[in-house]
Write a structure and sequence with these properties.
Length: 139
């Protein structure tokens, strides 16, 4: 068994929901290389279906998506799986929007573009249920 496979089962499963295939691929590559098992969805509706089917340990969620917007996905996930940490990864670097999503139950907010090390730190923190230093939740 390779080190990456051994680490992936230990680190956890991440569901990435973003309507941009390139962003899903980028997040998948970063997190897979770190040792996470990553599942991608290109719409809010598909992502919601995967919440039950795949039972992720943490979710990365874009806000601006056609169909079911990210904030609606977040609200539904809070009902379906209130224990699931949701991290917003959005191209809208807006403090008020970050605060709104945090009040709806997101554990953190990462503006795009992001530093891959920051992303990994925030995902690690979400899985251990503590805010990552220097991000929206800890501000």
């Amino acid at each position: 068994m390779s080190d990456a496979v051994a680490r992936s089962s230990f680190l956890g499963r991440v569901l990435v929901i973003d309507d941009e295939p390139g962003m899903v691929d980028l997040l998948t590559a970063i997190l897979s290389d770190t040792g996470y098992d990553v599942i991608g969805a290109l719409s809010g509706g598909d992502g919601l279906a995967l919440v039950d089917l795949e039972r992720p340990d943490v979710m990365l969620l874009d806000l601006q998506m056609p169909g079911v917007p990210g904030v609606d996905v977040l609200r539904r996930v809070r009902i379906l799986r209130p224990e699931l940490p949701v991290i917003i990864v959005s191209g809208q670097a807006d403090f008020n929007l970050a605060r709104t999503t945090l009040s709806c139950g997101a554990v953190d907010y990462i503006p795009k573009p992001f530093d891959p090390e920051d992303l990994i730190r925030v995902v690690d923190a979400a899985l251990t249920h503590r805010p990552a230093p220097g991000n929206a939740r800890s501000a």
